[in-house]
């Protein structure tokens, strides 16, 4: 009987991981192609884009914040990287794109800390502004990168593994070290847990928060480079649904909306789950509107589950 | 004693805010009539009123939700779903259509209210999820097509009829305004709604069941969406599953611009009315002077951000 209790505990704490395994099993049964090396490889490649962004936004959310603008930050960086190739070389265009992403993160950070605007609203405002900016800059048109070498970013391989996957792994490792092993990481958790107490203790909360938003902008920019390079186009359609997927995935994996809880691996598990669902749904050949219904329901389940977990955490603390 | 003087101070700021907005409204009317000869014509003004009724009624419902400190992002999708349902169900029976739509709207409102009120989930995300889900349901209902139904039912009157030369939608709009005003300003329920949004802990201490209040406002929002959907479908005669989305943006901007605080407890339907009129006139003005759609959106987005920023600043002063 004791061993059953132990199993139950694992089930409760590692629920997202279990869900992931269940999903893999489910789709493997329903589609013979799913469990092939080629397909699983595709899945991993596709999730790097959302995954890198997820790493960034995990920093923000653990710090108690929120960033709705990541989708269009990614889009802006993608568009800049491609369109600027008509004036500059690839390296410089990408550099400007990355700087733009970091800058957007910086602005978000300022809105949230110095102007004290609620993160939802501040980043929503940024989302709307970026949308307008992107539409204005592109005039609604697609564009194609001038240099062939741009494709190298996502198609280049090192030891047969594509660059994006290397970048993804590198970011995971760095992020894990920062969050779990450094003082900065502990401080971010502290701010997410209770910001007021941190201020009382003299912590420079504002600076750290701005830093998290800048990381979020940075990762969004990198993702933008990858997606532009992979699809070889820049289009104002990028990033529309990204924020739901990335945030939903990260929360599902265990990073709480309330802040101070979760870690990189939670985010990764969440992204894997969403990525597999997206991939698996493709095989099931569902019509477009089913996707909305499924994603909407999924998001609902995720937030209700997160709320449930938060209540249980609070009860256990008493 | 101190409580009373704080209250009058807050009331004073609200009055000032109301006056500033009225001033902006009047200024807009003057500028618009100077710039465009067409603006002050009866046709154009009626047009403004007609445009305004759809998102306006939604705004009134949203006012209730915002007053409790929450938000409802699903309103656009609810309008989409209800309008396609309404148009489609005309085939069977107009009365059945109205009843079915009301039931669905109430159910959605209750569901939203349950998640936010009883479960305590963050309203932004849950109503966002509902927005996506309900949009999917609307598209599922029509299986991707727009529904074109030449429904000759008497219900077309809702959208196209006139009563004493006033368009029916405007009558309904004024009716909703009237009921909302009475509900919010003259009943105990209204005071409870303000209390829930203003200082929730205090409201709970006073015995107000804030979770029920929070649930109720979503039901009200749902019903307002249903009414808007009726007017929309009756006016156009068909329904497309994507059409509700644009109304969310105008509705929420109108409410916040009008002075109802996102944090709850401040504002009201008269504030919202001013916000509605400003948005309506601005939109009309942009069309009259021929500004492209992107710029309209961009400008409206800026207004929303500005409105929210003012909201945050005045909240700071009053606390």
Low-confidence segments of chain A, ≥5 residues, pLDDT <50?
A: none
What percentage of the residues of chain B does DSSP assign to strands (E)? under 5%
The overall average pLDDT of chain A, rounded, is: 85
The structure class of chain A reads mainly alpha
Instruction: Provide mean pLDDT of chain B, rounded.
Output: 84
Question: Biggest sheet of chain A, in brief?
Answer: 2 strands, antiparallel
Strand order of the largest sheet of chain A: 1-2
Task: Pick out the low-confidence regions of chain B.
Answer: none
- The share of residues in extended strands of chain A comes to under 5%
Q: What is the number of helices of chain A?
A: 14
Helix content of chain A: over 70%
The gist of it:
The complex is a heterodimer of chains A (318) and B (319). Chain A is mainly α and 318 residues long. Chain A has 14 helices and 2 strands, in the order αααααααββααααααα.
Structural overview:
The complex is a heterodimer of chains A (318) and B (319). With 318 residues, chain A is mostly helical. Helices cover 76% and strands 1% of the residues of chain A. Chain A has a two-stranded antiparallel ribbon with strand order 1-2. Chain B is built from 13 helices and four strands. Chain B has a two-stranded antiparallel sheet. In chain B, strands 2-3 form a two-stranded antiparallel ribbon. The longest helix of chain B is centred in the N-terminal third of the chain and has 34 residues, at 2-35. Classes of the chains: A mainly alpha (318), B mainly alpha (319). Chains A and B meet through helix 6 and helix 14 of A and helix 5 and helix 13 of B.
